[in-house]
Amino acid sequence: MMTRAELTEKIVAHKMMTGFKWEDVGDAIGKSKEWTCAAMLGQLSLTKEEVEKAGNVMGLNFSPDETALLMTVPYRGSLPTQIPTDPLIYRFYEIVMVYGSTFKSLIEEEFGDGIMSAIDYDMSVTRIEDPKGDRVQVMMTGKFLPYKSY
Amino acid sequence: MMTRAELTEKIVAHKMMTGFKWEDVGDAIGKSKEWTCAAMLGQLSLTKEEVEKAGNVMGLNFSPDETALLMTVPYRGSLPTQIPTDPLIYRFYEIVMVYGSTFKSLIEEEFGDGIMSAIDYDMSVTRIEDPKGDRVQVMMTGKFLPYKSY
Amino acid sequence: MMTRAELTEKIVAHKMMTGFKWEDVGDAIGKSKEWTCAAMLGQLSLTKEEVEKAGNVMGLNFSPDETALLMTVPYRGSLPTQIPTDPLIYRFYEIVMVYGSTFKSLIEEEFGDGIMSAIDYDMSVTRIEDPKGDRVQVMMTGKFLPYKSY
Amino acid sequence: MMTRAELTEKIVAHKMMTGFKWEDVGDAIGKSKEWTCAAMLGQLSLTKEEVEKAGNVMGLNFSPDETALLMTVPYRGSLPTQIPTDPLIYRFYEIVMVYGSTFKSLIEEEFGDGIMSAIDYDMSVTRIEDPKGDRVQVMMTGKFLPYKSY
Amino acid sequence: MMTRAELTEKIVAHKMMTGFKWEDVGDAIGKSKEWTCAAMLGQLSLTKEEVEKAGNVMGLNFSPDETALLMTVPYRGSLPTQIPTDPLIYRFYEIVMVYGSTFKSLIEEEFGDGIMSAIDYDMSVTRIEDPKGDRVQVMMTGKFLPYKSY
Amino acid sequence: MMTRAELTEKIVAHKMMTGFKWEDVGDAIGKSKEWTCAAMLGQLSLTKEEVEKAGNVMGLNFSPDETALLMTVPYRGSLPTQIPTDPLIYRFYEIVMVYGSTFKSLIEEEFGDGIMSAIDYDMSVTRIEDPKGDRVQVMMTGKFLPYKSY
Amino acid sequence: MMTRAELTEKIVAHKMMTGFKWEDVGDAIGKSKEWTCAAMLGQLSLTKEEVEKAGNVMGLNFSPDETALLMTVPYRGSLPTQIPTDPLIYRFYEIVMVYGSTFKSLIEEEFGDGIMSAIDYDMSVTRIEDPKGDRVQVMMTGKFLPYKSY
Amino acid sequence: MMTRAELTEKIVAHKMMTGFKWEDVGDAIGKSKEWTCAAMLGQLSLTKEEVEKAGNVMGLNFSPDETALLMTVPYRGSLPTQIPTDPLIYRFYEIVMVYGSTFKSLIEEEFGDGIMSAIDYDMSVTRIEDPKGDRVQVMMTGKFLPYKSY
Amino acid sequence: MMTRAELTEKIVAHKMMTGFKWEDVGDAIGKSKEWTCAAMLGQLSLTKEEVEKAGNVMGLNFSPDETALLMTVPYRGSLPTQIPTDPLIYRFYEIVMVYGSTFKSLIEEEFGDGIMSAIDYDMSVTRIEDPKGDRVQVMMTGKFLPYKSY
Amino acid sequence: MMTRAELTEKIVAHKMMTGFKWEDVGDAIGKSKEWTCAAMLGQLSLTKEEVEKAGNVMGLNFSPDETALLMTVPYRGSLPTQIPTDPLIYRFYEIVMVYGSTFKSLIEEEFGDGIMSAIDYDMSVTRIEDPKGDRVQVMMTGKFLPYKSY
Asked: Please, which residues 67-86 of chain G have a Cβ atom closer than 8 Å to chain I?
């Protein structure tokens, strides 16, 4: 039986070969490119209908086994080590290491004691044009959840 | 001699007691509240002038030793363990673990092979009002740096 | 300056000496014994009024510095190592290791894809009398949070 | 030879496809849905008769090798890393990190020096309806075991 | 305030100087030498009366603070690292690494699925005279606890 | 080529199916059940003759490759992680963590500076009948080795 | 499907057998030997045209699957453990451990607060003849990136 | 007694205050700025004479204890964790992770089986002016040591 | 394609079956038994001629692929974990842990600041007959390398 | 109270200042320089008489507390991390990583299944003069201990 990791590799290789865009796949299933990309890389689960529609856009005809994998709620965690080695991903880890206490202080100053949800959460990745060199903008929003008192 | 960590604790305790706002400190030194908070928590370095102005707003009269600490380029990394245990900070780590490969795929689709800089970088933390519960919005922008070929 | 960990030790030693009960402290501040115990051990923050009332019941006259510490939102995480060595606490870690996938399967079967919140969360610890030996009952409830789709 | 992990994956995939419920499997073998789910995911061992009855409800005809695997006492531990990355399971780990010392203080206040058994142990996972959003209730009970003195 | 670790060091140094025996301390409080040694090294808790009697034998007049420390239920775990470096203690860790699966197979063959309790547990350390070189005998007994089915 | 780990799994599965006892295998080769079990699980090496005799009792006809594996001195260490997750095995690790300094103090009090050998070592696992619940008794004896002075 | 690691091994083995030089491969694609070697070992991505030309020099006729792998942006990180065991590579890690704070002090003295980029980066490895034994010279240059203030 | 780490902090703070340059210190003792900086940060040992001369340039009058510390061969390793968190230093670690196998392949192609010494080693850190942004150049040279055959 | 680890296992199994001696293999290629054993276990590289001669003595007819593996400079590091679990190998690690600072002090007293090379290095393993039990003698010699000053 | 680590630092600093030799200390107490150095660095225990004689040679007048520390059996392990960062000590660790399986194969070929004792163990560190550069010779001998069969 194929594993989810192998299916992810198959999708990534196919994207390399055919050049389809996450945005087009997202349009077909009525989701953003960010949600769609995360789902295809094994971090979110799809419905049967979404699998079919996505497969059509991507030019992949998913087998029943593959469809089941795409529909299963995944064991999340997309990286091979708990401290990432890939430089692009490490930069985000570095932001947590360096600015983690800053996020904590600013969120608690504004909202009180609680957290930003990583579940009731959405994000976007956008290009900001800039004459000194274009910039990547990552916007994350999550519901503020206060600690319950009882 | 006081350590930088002890100075951070002193500033945080003083903020608890007096209730000053990072934004007011930032206004006094001409920086954003995010930059100012990170600097005061030991992740960025200040000039002598900034230390003085900030001290005035915060109601802290920094000694020469404390001023030197605030002016020194710090050994960065604000957290006591490499996988954070504090729930607010952990949520950001979780985002890296779960969506790290998504960031990689989306940035490379849009920009090609490279990274989002965590140095030529700025960020903001804002409240988004929402009838279903207000949301925290974290916006990060960093210059895109392509891998050099040579 | 006293650290939060030292204040926790002072409270614990004082409890040993005087025998006050968490429930009595909780009654004085209108909170459960579970919330109160967690707050006093440095995992939740109190208001100025709660600190005073609690101090009265516990027979401790908190100084302004100690009061500030009790009012500060803590950097959470109560244990010295990421895999606990204390046998009582390890048993809970063992439950996560052994039954983690069971929790995941049962919660997802009943609720769909999402998590049980550890923030909008409460818990109780109770004695269940049993002729074969009394039992500890730990009840945890947390709001179900579904993954957002967008 | 199939490994236990591969058998677990086969069962999980089959559940995804056919939609059987852990409760129905549990009813067939006279066990709770929690015990049954844990056993099928490789954390408890079944008798030959239970394997057969469970297979009938699940629509799986276990081979002799698979039956042997389901009857073997497993090497327990259901997760791929010692700090879980899956957000649902991590929340339980977070509860141990944050409230571990609270559990210790409350259990020892009530029972004296000892532990809650994780072997003479049962648990349930239930939905609590709530107008502000349904809640997950996890109830754990374990026999209190006092430290032996000798 | 003295920590428990510092009190342990004080007791150990005093033993070095005066040469008292664990067995004599145990006799005074009606416990075995093994239980007494573990308690004095910070792994078990004593009653007020035991502290006094033990202090008399050891020639140490414990202060109220020290008495409180000896009466408190400790955060257990006597070693500075999770893999011990001291050769005497490492040998026991090695036995777990090498013979762990043997213990599991033999206990399960004899008793069925369950564990040997480390709480309802006692142990002894004895010299076995042997012409080829005396031997250390460590005998551990713990109640067998079967996994509960429900 | 089969690995030693795969051969161990084959032997364990065969034991599950046929129900042979380690003691009977041990009797056939003139060794204790403890030594025999450890050898079959890959921690000790057998002679060619022992392999044959053991195979007869177990009902397994070992191939030349399997025989070679059973005769090879193994790379020892029977567990997949350096801190065991299986509850039965973890209890022994816990004993080292909690009582390690006690073993050290008692052995050194009795014997002087040195260790209990884990090589010139034998052990037994026995059932102790007890009306309050049967107990597991593990007895370990190892030669005392004093530190050499030179 | 072949993995990138397997393709790397195939290339390395082929180099062993045929003795082609990285410099010749680099010349064919208009890149330095350092860039070319890193790309072939899976740390940089090539264009379709570069894959073909490189294949010709190396005497390898890459299949479409292999070509796709060589064109894909890799998950970077070329070593099996986070602290390298290979002596040649460990020496570079040692340089970071021993001289890391020296690099920090010297770069900050010369350039102010910022970093040397590891992305807008190039390097060379050269032989320096020396009568006392030839020396390896590694030259790294990276763009200085100052911390942004905002 | 002062530790070496505390002396390092004193020197670094003094440099912040007075602005002396490593190069000037190096000139006074006849060493490069790189060697001098590393020595002052606790990674190399100085002679009594060098300590005095360096102290004069730095405006620090070292006590006999401090002089002894500066003369002692240090336990090397300048960083608080085995994977650095400071972004400047991490970039060098990243270079090892990403290009470690490239260094190995290039050095072995040119020199045969062996290593670049990190002991018979020198380095320099220089500014390279560049209209697109100045660059940091780090040059390392170490004697090539071939594996001995015997 | 066979990996180097699989080839090592094949050689070890073959040695078990046929009983050839490392010394005889070494004699055939003009190397010591220590160098030869290390090379065959994947830590040093052989020439084509050595592979052939060694194969003749060992009774193994290496294929071209196997020959290439034996000729390739290996990624060194012969153990599956960074703290060894095998008792024989652990004893050497223990010697480093316990006597590491002793080696450092003695070498620096005799030679000054520097290291013993592990590359320009040879070793021998010999039996020392002793009426109280034969002893293993391990002799290591490595060139002393002083830290370079510049 | 002084810790053993602080006493070690005091002895090392005193050696730096006065230049006494380990050999002279060893001669005074009738032990080798290796044993003496290890004992003074906290890895072996001395008798009261040895402490006095050693103190005389070293020019240190040990207090009763210091004497007690030198007489106590230490918790062994002389290094701050489980993978050493100091280059001199790391080289020995590297030898274990690279040649560990070679030691195992050679010792087992010569002696059968067992280990070299690290307790009934002695060692020497000597200078070997060599025109190509003097060499460090480390000789270790330990009693061979065969695995017991029973």
From this structure: 80-81, 83, 85-86
